[in-house]
Write a structure and sequence with these properties.
The chain has 343 residues and is α+β, with helices and mostly antiparallel strands. Helix content is 42%, strand content 19%. The protein has a single domain, classed as Ribosomal Protein S8, Chain: A, domain 1, CATH 3.30.1370.60. The chain is globular and about 60 Å long. Bound molecules: NADPH dihydro-nicotinamide-adenine-dinucleotide phosphate and pyrrole-2-carboxylate.
């Protein structure tokens, strides 16, 4: 039997939907998660696609997440909107906050969306790419569980805390980067464990504080920030923005209050959107987007380069017709989740 199962994107969406509905997740939460999972598979983001569905289910079965939650939007200031996820999953909260954020960024020049009380288990580019499609530059920050040692330390404290950024382009999809502030996402280590592969050097240390390439030892120990103290400083910043600033938890607090069901952490998130046309004096437009294109051209002029997000966009061209593959073991797990309604 092949180690891989082929699926169309429609299959991905349908399977995710059936599993979540079978576990009592509301129609609206299900739709938003199924879109997020399908888009991750479409863009070949394997650590945050179907791989995450068993975790979503675990958090429903354990009662950690309110799978019928209806997020609530609050107006905190002319340029600040809050969406309270009401202890549900984050994709619906994000979806509900997007249009008001765009409207405020256009009217104020810059605006922020603070999401609180939401369980985030996804890639971060879906936060910013649609904003750049609306002509805005955007940042997003989210914290998670304590996985990463601070620079010089050996015990997990920070989350893997990704940062995403998007820039609008004319005649191209947006430029987007989305990266953990750790040397790797947690999901990448879990996938190495599943696939029986050693980790690259520099991703983690074991509980004894010594470097390790063994995924199991790494998961029991601590992940390392990327680039030493520089990545650690960015991770600290994410804790402050997605935790303290929006009035939600730090990663170590999310860990302390979690029930260890293997599902997503609950916490906060900050998204900032900026309207480029409001950042220069009227009548003094500098052709910001055209200038950016000149920079991108210089990057691409050098052999061996590519722009961040190009790999995803290449996958996006391919997968609607060619479909995707997942490991047979994951496919079996997912099939069981429809049949039994249990993880
Ligand atoms: P990667 O290191 O795989 O990629 C980071 C970024 O660098 C991407 O935008 C990628 O673009 C770009 N990139 C990669 N190679 C090149 C290159 N040669 N030239 C230019 N750009 C390049 O991501 P991570 O492992 O850090 O994170 C993986 C995912 O995990 C992310 O989506 C992140 O949001 C998610 N995550 C989620 C967390 C959460 O709490 N929800 C926590 C941590 C991570 P491209 O995509 O096109 O390859
Ligand atoms: O892959 O590091 C990760 C992660 C944490 C929460 C969701 N994904």
């Amino acid at each position: 039997m092949s180690d891989l199962v082929s699926m169309s994107l429609e299959d991905v969406h349908g399977l995710t939907t059936r599993i979540l509905l079978a576990h009592g997740v509301s129609q609206e939460q299900t739709r938003a998660i199924a879109n997020t999972v399908t888009n991750a598979e479409r863009d070949d983001c394997k650590s945050h696609g179907l791989f995450r569905v068993p975790g979503y289910v675990k958090s429903v079965v354990s009662g950690k997440v309110d799978c019928s939650a209806v997020p609530e939007i609050r107006d905190l200031a002319p340029g600040v909107i809050q969406v309270d996820g009401k202890h549900g999953f984050s994709p619906l909260a994000l979806e509900m906050g997007r249009a008001p954020l765009v409207e405020r960024a256009r009217s104020q020049g810059i605006a922020a969306l603070a999401i609180i009380n939401a369980h985030h288990f996804a890639a971060l580019w879906p936060e910013v790419e649609p904003l750049a499609e609306e002509g805005l530059a955007a940042f997003a920050f989210v914290d998670s569980f304590s996985y990463v040692a601070p620079a010089g330390g050996t015990k997990p404290l920070y989350g893997t805390n990704p940062i995403a950024f998007a820039w609008p382009r004319e005649n191209h999809p947006p430029l987007v980067f989305d990266q953990a502030t750790s040397a790797s996402a947690r999901g990448e280590i879990q996938i190495h464990l599943r696939d029986g592969k050693p980790l690259p050097q520099g991703w983690a240390i074991g509980p004894d504080g010594q470097p390790t390439t063994d995924p199991e030892t790494a998961l029991a120990g601590a992940q390392l920030p990327f680039g030493g103290y520089k990545g650690a400083a960015l991770s600290l910043m994410v804790e402050l923005l997605a935790g303290a600033l929006v009035g939600d938890v730090f990663s170590f607090e999310a860990t302390a209050r979690d029930n260890q069901d293997g599902g997503p952490p609950e916490g906060g998130e900050l998204i900032i959107a900026i309207d480029p046309s409001r950042c220069v004096a009227s009548g003094k437009q500098t052709g910001q987007l055209a200038r950016a294109e000149a920079l991108f051209a210089q990057v691409l002029d050098q052999d061996g380069t590519r722009l961040p997000s190009d790999r995803r966009y290449q996958a996006r061209l391919r997968t609607p017709t060619e479909g995707i593959t997942i490991p047979t073991s994951l496919h079996e797990t997912l099939q069981q989740l429809i049949g039994t309604g249990h993880p």
